[in-house]
Specification:
mainly alpha
């Protein structure tokens, strides 16, 4: 497993980890409910190899169509943003305000989800384009790129769903898993949940501060000062852009443009919160203790990513607007793979699940979202139990093929009689 120093664009453990002695001692209990414990060590490593093969095949196939995709999305986003800003200059007319605000909301969601999140993951670094690279990209949100790459790329994607290690499990102020000990503070989490929805970008901005370390006095003061300085600098730029510069360009109708920008940011925050929470906190997702993963191999890491995430079903437009994080399972298996490839590889991931009797967590948006809200409300109070988990994935039966018939002729007509 990686060390805790510095951000990483990919958290997939090095293949050499497989050579560590005794790394697959766990597992092999056919009566265990957790797939990680039910699989034999050999099966876990086979699964790791199967997923690594999927990763390597896509990696070897990356080329012009992928580069064209991300460049076209960025171009579309920039044109939509510019057009929305121009329309908002006439925001004194209600249709113009509504059209400009809708366009700006869509543009901010695209930039945040499909572009910013995925570029900062290093999914497009293979292009060697300095304009679309995780080392140079900055996104239209309050979080600095550097802090997000550490808290998300490294901490979350390395220690996914390990209670006490992955700070995305409750974000240090919510109890979303029964393994988390209850405290009276959690009674406030239904209210905090609403606040986090509308102010999500600001919560992400301070996420890497490590609130627990600050509370316990373990945070280095110089480091804390530097991080706060970075957050403040980014916050000033975001506020100046959305709430000073662009409203000023609208002249005497600046209040309407300011309201439009505020609305677009709220829409983007609520949407991003919903997609991310649905990818991690529905009933289907497993969480883990540090002891369970103490001797984890690369294969074990892949299995943990598989069963610790959950997909959201929807149309191609829905997947695009979610940044393809609706394919959260594929994203967690392959965080450095271009997001546009997740739909393509999903059948291969399902095939591995079916072969080894593993679940493939997925469900419609409303179902996943309501599960999350139920857990947040229930676990605000003491107690709580782990929700039932889905069984092994089984591919749906293929629909029967209809053979061509001719009116007046009994039965199907063979192509080559």
């Amino acid at each position: 497993m990686s060390t805790e120093s510095g951000p990483s664009t990919s958290s997939i453990p090095d293949t050499q980890d497989d050579a560590r002695p005794g790394v697959s001692r766990r597992g092999g209990d056919p009566t265990a409910s957790n797939p990680l414990h039910r699989l034999t060590p050999e099966q876990i490593e086979e699964i790791g190899e199967a997923f690594q093969k999927i990763h390597d095949e896509v990696r070897a196939d990356l080329g012009d169509r992928d580069a064209t995709y991300i460049r076209s999305i960025i171009e579309f986003h920039r044109r939509l943003t510019a057009l929305s800003r121009i329309v908002l200059m006439a925001s004194r007319y209600p249709p113009a305000w509504l059209l400009g605000t809708t366009g700006l909301s869509v543009a901010k969601i695209l930039e945040n989800m499909e572009i910013g999140h995925n570029v900062l993951h290093g999914q497009w670094d293979w292009m060697n384009d300095p304009q679309i690279h995780s080392s140079t990209w900055d996104w239209d949100t309050a979080s600095t790129a550097a802090s997000w790459k550490h808290s998300h790329n490294y901490i979350h994607h390395t220690f996914t769903n390990i209670v006490g290690k992955d700070k995305d499990v409750g974000y240090e102020f919510m109890r979303i898993d029964p393994k988390q000990p209850w405290e009276p503070f959690f009674l406030l989490q239904p209210l905090l949940n609403v606040l986090v929805m509308v102010a999500f970008e600001w919560g992400v901005a301070i996420h890497d501060l490590d609130l627990e370390a600050i509370r316990k006095g373990k945070k280095d003061k110089r480091q804390l000062r530097d991080e706060l300085k970075g957050i403040a600098g980014k916050a000033v730029r975001q506020i100046a852009k959305d709430y000073v510069l662009f409203p000023a360009l609208s002249g005497k109708h600046w209040k309407k443009t300011l309201k439009a920008n505020f609305t677009a940011n709220i829409v983007r925050n609520v949407w991003a919160n919903a997609i991310i929470f649905c990818g991690h906190f529905p009933d289907q997702a497993y969480t883990f203790t540090e002891e369970e993963v103490a001797d984890e191999t690369r294969g074990g890491w892949y299995v943990r990513q598989l069963i610790g995430a959950a997909n959201i079903e929807g149309s191609d437009t829905f997947h695009l607007m979610s940044g393809n994080l609706s394919y959260q399972v594929e994203h967690h298996l392959f965080p450095d793979m271009p997001s546009s490839r997740y739909k393509e590889i999903a059948p291969k991931v399902k095939a591995v699940c079916e072969q080894y009797g593993l679940p493939y967590n997925t469900g419609p948006f409303l179902q996943q979202w309501l599960m999350v809200q139920r857990s947040i409300l229930r676990l605000a109070f003491p107690g709580g139990q782990e929700r039932p988990k889905p069984g092994a994935y089984v591919a749906p039966p293929e629909p029967p093929r209809e053979r061509p018939t001719v009116p007046g002729v009994a039965g199907p007509v063979p192509a080559f009689p």
